[in-house]
Amino acid sequence: MNPKVPDIGQLKELSLPAPVSYAPQTWGWWVLLAALLAAAALIGWRRYRQWRRDRYRREALLRLAQLRSRSDDLSALRELPELLKRVALSMPAPARKTDPLPQGPAALGDKEWQRFLERHCADPLPCDFSHRLGQLAYAPDAVLQTLPEAQRQTLFDLCQAWVERHHVAA
Q: What is the percent of the chain where pLDDT is above 90?
């Protein structure tokens, strides 16, 4: 054996470095972590409240999908105005009492109902939308049976758009 060639038995084991804590070493990182956790909790809480507040909207959209599936049935068409009125009544009350409708949407008629629908929707509505809803609610069956399928689907689309995108005063 050659004395100049090192032998594996002569190797020494390296010592491990001292363990390093993963915890932050300065108080600033703790403050930043607390602020991030507080912000995440606040965002989560607000989203949960919004999700709970929009329960009426999800239920209305589900009912609207059920009605749309049987759009050839007159009772489904007659339920559209009632559904929109129930959605309007279920909307959370505004925090400020500056709403020009102190009695709420329950007692609104043709023109006032149209203004209410337009005021709470970001998308433009047809100027005779409330009249069409009134026709669905009170017209004789023979008139509703003559409505073309395209007009029925348009009414369902308008109702769905209003339910999905109406805004509520916070």
A: 19
Domain count, the chain: 1
Q: What span, in angstroms and rounded, lies between the C-alpha atoms of 104 and 22?
A: 58
What six digits make up the tokens of 17? 């470095």
**68: part of which helix (H) or strand (E)?**
helix 55-69
pTM for the whole structure? 0.68
The residue segments making up the domain with residue 137 are 55-93+108-165
Please name which of 64, 112, 121, 114 lies closest in space to residue 91, comparing C-alpha atoms: 121
Angle at 155 between CA 70 and CA 118, to 5 degrees: 140
Distance CA 28, CA 122 (A): 45
What does the alpha-carbon distance between residue 37 and residue 31 come to, in Å, rounded to a whole number?
Answer: 10
In a domain, 41, yes or no: no
